[in-house]
Specification:
five-stranded parallel sheet; FAD/NAD(P)-binding domain; binds flavin-adenine dinucleotide; Elongation Factor Tu (Ef-tu), domain 3; alpha+beta; six-stranded antiparallel barrel; single chain; 24% strand; 2 domains
Amino acid sequence: MNENRSSGSVSLAVIGGGYGGLCAAVMASACKIKVTVFERQDKPLKKIALTGNGRCNISNENISINDYVTDDRDTLDAILSSFNREEENRFFSILGLGLRSDESRLYPVTGKALSVMDALKYKCNESGVSFVCDHTVTAVLKRDDHFEIRCGNETYDTRFDLCILACGGAAGVYKENSSNGFDIVKKLGHTIKPVYPALTKVICSADDQKALKKLDGIRVRADLKLLDDKGDLMAEESGELQMTATGLSGIPVFDLTRYMKVGSGKAYRISVDLLPGFTGEMFDERMKLFPLRTPETFFTGLLLPAFVPFICGRCNINIHKRMGDLSDNEVSDLINTLHDCIFDIEKTGDLASAQISTGGVPLSEVDLHMRSKKVNGLYIIGEMLDVAGRCGGFNLHFAASGAFNAVKDMNSYA
Ligand SMILES: Cc1cc2nc3c(=O)[nH]c(=O)nc-3n(C[C@H](O)[C@H](O)[C@H](O)COP(=O)(O)OP(=O)(O)OC[C@H]3O[C@@H](n4cnc5c(N)ncnc54)[C@H](O)[C@@H]3O)c2cc1C
């Protein structure tokens, strides 16, 4: 039995001072658990400053299982249901953090990520949470009744009753943001699924890029479908598509990248509907109105002008030909291309530019309390797990949900 437990208090090591780790530290210390956070950078929460373009989209008013991609939907459903809106609001009030909603996305009321960082740090300080920064944990060793924490050759001198791994994924801009947490958890007997960048742009084939150069910077509301190499539908998203000189970007594209394993030998295509809801009947009516117009002027008011030569180029239609003079085949090609404009995906953005990584520890290797199914007393939370939320506050919410469920298991926090 270690010294902390004999004096009646449970000791917890939290590996990783990111959002999930600090949520767990605040929640556990509220239950009189003695918490030590290990962080490899010089201070905790560095990534939070970058989230939501510096505003930190901390959560979302409408969270559902369908906002996530994971291997274990039942466990995820139980995790999300337990940390419901009421519980999350209660946690934000404990932090003294005011929030505002922007189309259901929740941000600190100050509009600054710094407020989230400060609120968590002040609460940790008030609660007596200890920090060991500038220390990269290289191993967590499970002994009979305690955990030992190793940082290189050094073994930290406190024995811990419980341990939460909250080391995040492999995405991000810090050079030291490698997948150290995965090394630790692998040594403890967990599986690590291959890691891929997600919530990032896609780069299209060289052929597509030739035409895309003329669309660089254009934004359009569109419906997108992700197709596999057989043409089967994998996922659908709608929203503001951003064209770049090399590919596609914007939130619907980011969300589709959660399904991609680019570099694993799989090929992907994205089908873009540039005029969602514009039916064949609507097209016929417009043809009756403007039969003498060329495609360039025919689409005025419907489609941004830069798209017209792009679409006509794809169907081999002369842009100066009158619409009324197009053959039936040309008309149907035009309509099909508008609604099903295919882009071949070469790759996604890299891990450094991605907001999250997919893969990692399968969610099925923890239970709804984030308890490792391999090591007693060990919990795994946040982006280390194979759970990929869409853009909109869902990933920070998942990290906090894990913290909540783990601490609830430790000491009936709720
Ligand atoms: C640019 C950007 C913008 C984003 N915007 C949003 C957003 O607006 N909303 C949203 O929901 N999500 C956003 N995300 C994703 C979100 O930040 C992450 O999903 C979330 O931070 C994961 O929380 P975590 O606690 O699991 O890991 P992290 O927050 O990544 O924290 C892990 C911590 O562990 C430390 N660590 C790792 N290994 C070790 C080790 N071996 N020893 C000691 N310390 C270690 C790391 O240094 C880090 O501080 C964004 C991500 C990026 C990169």
